[in-house]
Amino acid sequence: MSSVKVEAPETSYDGYRESYHPPQDIDCHRHKNTSLDKMDDKESSAKRINGLGSEVMEYGIQVVKGKDEGSRGVSTSAASATPVPSASATAATQLSDATSANSTDSNIVSRRKQEPAGTTPAQARGNNKRNLPSVSSAGGVARENGGKRSRRPPPRFGETAGLDRREESILRQAIENSKIETHLCDTVEIGEVPVFRPSLAEFADPIQFIESVKQAGDHFGIVKIIPPPGWSPPPQDEMHRSCKTPVKTRLQSLKYFKEGTGVADGKDYTFAEYENMAVQFSEKWQKERYQGQGKDAPTHEDLERDYWRIIEAAEEVVDVEYGNDLDTLTYGSGFPRATDLMMPRSEGSTEDRFAIETIGKDREGRGRLLGTPEYYERCGWNMNNLPLWPGSVLRYIRAPLKGVNVPWLYLGMQFATFCWHNEDNFMFSINYLHRGAAKQWYSIPGSKADVMEKVMKGFLREVFANNPDLLHHMTNQFHPVLFHRAGVPVFKARQEPGEFIVTFPKSFHAGFNYGFNVAEAVNFSPPLWLPLGREAMERYRRFARESVVSHDRLVLTLAHNLCPEWSIPSLQALLHDLTLIVKEEEFWRSQLTRQGLRVDIVPPSKLLPNNLKEMDDASLDYDEKRVCLSCKHVCFLSAVACECSESKVVCLREVPLLCKCRMDQRYLMAWHSISDLWDMVRRVEEYLKARLGEMGKRDGQKEEEEGGGSTTSDGEESGETL
Prior knowledge:
Blueprint: H1 36-40, H2 43-49, H3 52-58, H4 76-80, H5 87-95, H6 97-102, H7 104-109, H8 121-131, H9 165-181, E1 191-192, E2 195-196, H10 206-212, H11 214-220, E3 222-225, H12 237-241, E4 247-253, E5 263-269, H13 271-289, H14 300-313, E6 319-327, H15 328-331, H16 373-378, E7 408-412, E8 417-421, E9 428-436, E10 439-444, H17 449-459, H18 461-466, H19 480-485, E11 491-495, E12 500-503, E13 508-513, E14 517-524, H20 530-543, H21 551-560, H22 568-594, E15 598-602, H23 617-624, E16 638-642, E17 645-650, E18 666-670, H24 674-706
Parallel strand pairs: 1-11, 2-3, 15-18
Antiparallel strand pairs: 3-12, 4-5, 4-6, 6-7, 7-14, 8-13, 9-12, 9-14, 10-11, 10-13, 16-17, 16-18
Helix pairs in contact: 21-22, 22-24
C-alpha cells in the first residue's frame, strides 16, 4: 500500500446556500412519448405505489379535497413542454436517408390529377403530361421540354424491391457487421489483468486492501487476488448435496447471444444431477472434437476458440444450462457462516463491533491460525461478511438484498455464459471460485464504459432502437476483439479455484466457464464509491429503472452513522454527496412553492419518520410505496401528491407528469425539513474537521518520537491510506 498525503479541504463548507442549478445531464420535467392517461395505467407503477394511500391514512395524513373538485385544469409547465422524440424514431430517420432520396421520383410521378368521367386514355396521357410538376433536371423527375422523364439510375445493392425501411436497415446493418466480423476470431493479443498476492497482514482487512489497488482496478476494470499460502476454506459440498430445493437453471442458446436473445428457463436439477450433466457434456465434447486429433484433452485455448466460434459464426446449435443467481439463504453458501457477527448493535454497545486488528486472533487473545474453521467464519473475505465489514457503505443494510449483501451461488458448466454487464448501482463485486473448472473473464474499465456502449449500439442499431436499455438485460455477448479493434481497451483473466476476482465500479465484464464449477459472488462498496453511485442513480432515472437501493437513503444513513474506520478522503466524498442532495432538495422545493405547490397540508410530524440507524425490511418496504410514477426514483426526502389520487406520487423533478390538475391542487409530503438537512451537513463537516485535527496531532507526535524521520515497518505505512 502507498501512503496518501491528506490535506484539509480547499473550500470552506460555510457557504452552502449559494444558488443551486440542476446539473446539465439531468433532463428535468422531460415528457416521454406516452400520454398521461397511458402512464396512469402502468401496472409497474401501480404495484410500487399501491397502498401508499392506506399508509397515508394509517399514519394520520388527512387528504384535503378542494372546493372545485370536479374541475381539472392543466399545469402551465406541463402543457408548454416539448415532447422528446423517441429513440426508435430518431434511428429510423437516420437509417432512411438513403431510401428517401431514391423514392422521390415515384412519389411525385404518382401524384396525378384525377381525370373527369369520359376522358379517353389518349386525353388522359395528354393531361398527365401537362399537369406533371416542373422540376429542375437536378431532381431527376421531369424536363421542361416536353415533360419527358429522365433516366432513373439502376438500384444500388441493398435497395431491394419489396423491402420496407426497417428491413432495409436490418440488411444494411448485417452487411456492415459482416465486414467487421471477418476474421474476428483470429488471434489478437489481449492484455492480462494484474494479479495481487497480499501478505497475511494485508489480507486482514479486505476493504483497505481493495482500496489500495483501486488505481489498477480503475485502469483494468477487474483484478485477480490470490490469497496467502495456507488459505483453504472448508468445503460445503455435503450441505449443498443435501439441499432439497431443486436448482433452477437458465437455458442458454449460444448462437443467439449476439442478437440479445437466447435465454430461457432450463430444467430443474439437484446439485448432484447438475454436476453429472455438466461432466457428461464436457466428456462428450472432448470425445467428439478432440480425441481423433491425438489430444488427451482440449486446452483452455482450444475451448476459448471453440466458444467464440460458436458465438460469432452462429451456425452450430449449442445449448447449455447455467445455475446462476442461486440464493445462498436457500441453497447454502460455500463459506461457513458465523451467526454472531454483524448483527445490529444496541445503543452504546460495541459487542458485535470487533476490531480489525483482532482478525487472525480469537477474543481471548490466543492466535486464531489461518486454516481453522473459526477463522473462515469471521474473516472479511468470507462472502457473507464482506458487504457488512467495517468501512463498507452497505454495512447498515440489515434487510437481506439478494446478490447485494446476500451472496449468489453459481453452478457452471462448459460454455455457461455471463454476458457483458456492469453491476447494479455501479457497485464493486467480488467473485470466489470454490471448486471445479476455471472461469474465463473479460473486462472493459469503467472509464471507457460510454465508448463501449456506443460500439455495441453501433453494432445493433435496430435492436437498441427498440430496446434502449438492452444492456441492463445482460443478454448480449460480443467477442472482445470487436471492442479492441474499435479502440476500446479490453483485458482478460483466467480464474482458478481458490482465487478472487474483484470488479470495479462501472466496469463492464463478461465471460464463460470451462467446465463444471461452483462459484459465489456478492456486492460491496467502500465510501469512495459514492460519486459512482450518484452517477448510476441519474442513469436509472433517465431510463425510468428502479434502483436496488435508494442512494439518498444510503447517504443519509451513512451521515447518521459516521464510521471511525473511514479515511479522510472517504469522509470528504460523503460530505460532498450529502451537500449535493440537500442543495437540490432546497432548490426544487423553492421553485415549486413559487409555482403554487401547497406545503401546509402534510407536515413532517404526520409522516412515518425515516429510520436512519439502519435499513431494515420495514424501511425498504415503505420505500417501495413512494416510488416516483415517472422516473422510478425513491422519494426518500419528499414527494408530491395530488387531491385526484391517494396513491400516485412523483419526485420533485417530475411534478408536471403527475396528473392534469392545477398546481394548487397538488401538495408536498416532506419527511425532512430543509433546516434538519443542513444540520446534518454541518454535523458531518464538524466530524471531518475533528478527524483532521486528530490526524495532525498524531503526525506531530510521531515526528517528535522519530526525530523527524518517517520509517515504517514492513507491510505497514504511516498516515491515512487509500
